[in-house]
Design goal:
The protein is of the alpha+beta class. The protein has 18 helices and 23 strands. The radius of gyration is 30 Å and the shape is globular. The N and C termini lie far apart (86 Å). Bound molecules: ligand LR7 and manganese (II) ion (MN). Ligand LR7 binds next to strand 1, helix 9 and helix 12. The site of manganese (II) ion (MN) has 3 residues, from loops. Belongs to the glycosyltransferase 2 family. GalNAc-T subfamily.
Amino acid sequence: MSGRLHRRLRCCLLGVLTVLAMQLLIVVLVVRFGLIDELISRRLLLQQQQLSLHQLEWREFITHTPDQSHALYQYNRQLSDNLAAVRLLPTTRHHSCNRRRYRLPRTSQAKLSVVISFHNEARSMLLRTILTLISRTPEEYLHELIVIDDGSEDVGLLASLERHMTAANAQRGRPALILSRNLSRKGLIWSRNEGARLASGHYLLFLDSHCEVNDGWLEPLLERLALNSGLAVSPVLDPIEPETLSYTAGNELLKGGFDWSLHFHWLPRVLAEKEALAQPYASPAFAGGILMISRELFHKLHGFNPHLEIWGGESIELAIKLWLCGGQIEIVPCSRIGHIFRPAHAFEFPLQFEQKQEQEQEQELEQELERQQLDSVQATYLRNSKIIAESWLDEYKYLFYALKPSARQIPLNLRPVREASYDPAQIKAELKCRPFDWLMRHVSPELRLQHANLSALGTLRNAGRCLHVAGTEPQLHLQLASCHGLQVTQWYLHHESGQLSTSEQGLCLAVDAAAKQPQLSLEPCRAGQGGQHWLRRSTQLQHAGTHLCLDNPLKDQLLLSHCRPHAVSQSFQFALEMEA
Ligand code: LR7
Ligand code: MN
């Protein structure tokens, strides 16, 4: 009898324990993988889906787009018109991001102004960008939305957007909408500066007009910015495929960077030991042009360089400026924003000449571009890059020119701009900015590696004297002279192809091997030219065709002689060796 009771009790106890264990397991699973947040956010999303484009009022708004062509947008516009305005997106961030409680600033100290400039964006796409942002951003932080129409062909868009938004906003009361239209095309850089000028929030977010913010995008960024007033941040960008508009996970193992031609690049990052995948990480540049920064810091840095035109380079310039002048950049993987990466530019780049007296200049420029076979897109971008190189790269700008020789001929034509005081030299003095060299050593060591076929560069020294181009064109000759620090006139580039070029004139050191007495000369560089091939044997420079070495037998004189290992007079050192 008591034995049966005992057994029954044990049975009972076992049952209770099993149930408890199961419950514990469920709790652990839910907490560990953020399932609760996931469930809550799914429910919210379903509610948000009611912001469907099929709702009558938005339908009327989007079907107004005059042009249906694919080429105008470079993405599937029809599909965009038929997708929900706010659609369910896959959770692309690490699951630990859902569980984290972010240390957020008080709402009264963290008002956000979002700046969106667009040129010829499909209405449904622009609307999705805006509505998704509104529905996935905590109302109490989202202060205002500044939308700038940069001279789009769809002239009625903004007025119509305003009507519809006012009706929709009536229920929410927030955020304030500031709509502005450039009657003529001003470019995204001008427009973003204008947006920042109109803004009154504590923080600025610059967004393209074909983006979808993902759930919880703001909090991780805000947390970082509130911790460090010198910081600017980017989310990880999730790619949206232009044809199918499918939303996929971006890569949190990449950081933003650039090369010596000032092209943007994604760079691999190495996770430090024990560093979590979801942890914010320093990045030489922003994730493209999508970035968040305090308004105060943005203005302290004098905003985007207003001399840059239409498209390109502004976020790289801001990144360089920020790092050199005491700030930092981080990419925050718990924040995700989707962006349509389009296969080609969807618009023309008008060359900007507004005043009549500049017409002559314009013709000259057009002839020059034709000679260099550059279209207006390339020319605008190259000109912007040249401005950045001239503003921030110090002596390293010659690396830029070595890679982009045609930039030398691009006229800068710096016209007076609204921000009359934009002068990099003045900004450097005012903010006590560091030299570019510092960035190379501390922020973007990749620049040393991304030397694009250069094996060494800089001044070329022999016994404390520097190689120097003397005379005037076309009668130039080489000699040794006292070194002028890091002066351009004494810069040489040794290319992996074997060419040894002067950075200032872009000429190559040559030897006529057929001549009786081989002579040194400076010639225009020609690829594959035997006479311009130099080998580096330790610190010796040996001419490949004649096997003779560059020598300095007498004071400041340069000539060619038989190579003698360890001869001090044949030892030439570059300032900067590039690692292979
Ligand atoms: O004249 C123009 N006026 C505009 O308002 C030309 C463009 N624009 C708008 C345009 O409608 C869009 O919203 O500016 C935005 C950017 O132009 P896109 O989307 O045609 O080009 P993009 O996606 O290549 O833009 C990248 O480079 C730009 C260089 O000036 C900006 O920095 C953009 O912010 C940047 N976009 C991103 O970084 C998103 C991720 C891509 C990457 C990497
Ligand atoms: Mn874009």
